[in-house]
Design goal:
Strand order of the largest sheet: 3-1-2-5-4
Strand content: 15-25%
Structural class: alpha+beta
Number of helices: 8
Radius of gyration: 26 Å
Length: about 160
């Protein structure tokens, strides 16, 4: 467990809480906040340490676990080691590039599949793509170029057979 400090610069307040996953907790808080929030710092600890900090900075409490960043609390926060998010692994370009297909593109795939006496569901199986992915594409979702190439390759093989 960690005690976390989530800062809202707009209101000059900090939330002092505890969580097993402070990053996830910050995202959850952000989902319900009108203002940008950032995970300022974390320290080892659980409920006891959190409660001690709440008591220590009781004069700064605005409501619940939110405290005004002034005086001793401001000094305390400045002395904490700032949170640095873990580095995300580098992704290959082929995993990142996406395109949006229009109805004509998808109709052409369906026409070619029908001419090759194969259903779109079977084509998706051959390409090892979930059939639900096809329907997401039909509804206007983006398509990873890698998955679209797999579908094209499977269709081309089927046409050649």
């Amino acid at each position: 467990m960690s005690v976390y400090f989530v800062v809202c610069d707009h209101t000059e307040m900090v939330k002092i809480g505890h969580s097993g996953n402070p990053e996830k907790r910050t995202r959850s808080l952000q989902a319900t906040s009108s203002f940008p929030l950032k995970l300022h710092a974390t320290i080892d600890g659980a409920r006891n340490e959190e409660a001690a900090l709440h008591e220590r900075f009781v004069e700064n409490r605005v409501f619940g676990e939110w405290f005004l960043i002034t005086g001793e609390l401001k000094k305390y926060l400045s002395e904490l080691e700032k949170y640095e998010p873990p580095e995300k692994p580098e992704r290959k370009v082929s995993e990142v590039l996406k395109i949006t297909l229009d109805d004509d593109d998808l109709s052409e795939i369906e026409r070619r599949a029908t001419a090759s006496r194969i259903s779109v569901a079977e084509l998706c199986d051959l390409a090892e793509i979930a059939y639900s992915t096809w329907w997401r594409w039909k509804k206007g979702g983006t398509v990873s170029i890698k998955k679209f190439r797999l579908l094209e390759q499977a269709l081309t093989k089927r046409e050649a057979a």
